[in-house]
What we know:
3 domains; two-stranded antiparallel sheet; 7% strand
Amino acid sequence: MEHRFYGSSLPFGNRSFSPEALQYLTIEQALADYSLLLAKLPRILGCTGTAFNRASGLCDTILFGGSYGGMLAAWHRFKYPHLSVGAVASGAPVDFYPGGKGSQGVQAAFYKAYVATFSKYGGAEGCGAALETALRAADNATETQLLEAGIKPCSDTAKSNMAEQFAFYAKGAVSSLAMIDYPYPCSFITPLPANPVQKACAILTTEKNPLTALNMALLLYVNATGDLPCLSLADELVGRRTSIHTQRLKATDLGVTAWNYQACTELLLEPITSNGYGFYPEADSQLSEVVANCVRRFQVQPRPSWMPLAFGRGHDYRLFSNIIFMENEKDPWHVGTATISAVGGVNGTVTRIVSKGGAHHQDLRFSSPYDTEDVHKARAYEKSTIQKWLSAL
Length: 393
């Protein structure tokens, strides 16, 4: 089933991205759509379910989702637990909200997580430290230093804060490299070779100028095809309606407009940066800028306190049942479920596992001989747990 306002599912046709139409793009409405589908599965598939579900006319259904889809799977178990048997939520940061412990809360944890991926899986000694050195250099760079390092910002980049914009852009690119550091070539978001973090680390640990190294590393991600003439740094933090990135990605983007609208209304720390190339959670100090951009672009006011109230925080999952939160070690978004107990929920039926050596929802991808042993074990655990859920009906 396709999520409303994504792909071909445009309920108002060409008018679907007008402010009047976008009010119907909410997580609550999407979950209700899935509920209607589940209610119709007996007629669509001819399934009858076990005695447990037959009285209500439902099929025995397991929900699967990766990333945002995993969040939806978990939230559906929260809102509509009577319509499914259980859910597998992989790479699903359901507790990723502004504030929290530490100087920047989840942002600090996210930063630490992707640097750890470069340190452990970069294949070059000192890569994590080299990455941090490069990011600090970007934070403190002058416009002249950036240009001398070969960085080519587009003409719409404000010179007054070019360093800040480039640093944020770079963090979005390198954290996304960690997120999708698959052990085989992949075009999930952008065409990448196998183990792209290793390719980036080879640059970061050999190029003497840290700014040049950072620029070359991020270009592996944002310019894999080599046809991007400049970096549209102004597109960060929700971005704008049109840009060189949007024009280039028109045929294949991941629903940039729809997602950024959802980031503005419900998922405030998760806008798509670079108009389609990756995510990076803005700092709490940047939220006022995000709010202003959301009002300007979509005429909506973000509600940062609504999601925790409507769908709960990590500790609230002790009240739920039959959910597997499967995380993969390389993926920095795993910090978004760190507040969920490894075993909890009703009768211990909510579990959280982190598989070593896996990237973003790699357990839900097709099996590969390059998968780590832990990724194979993750799939086996999901299968055996689902069998237990079904046999208990």
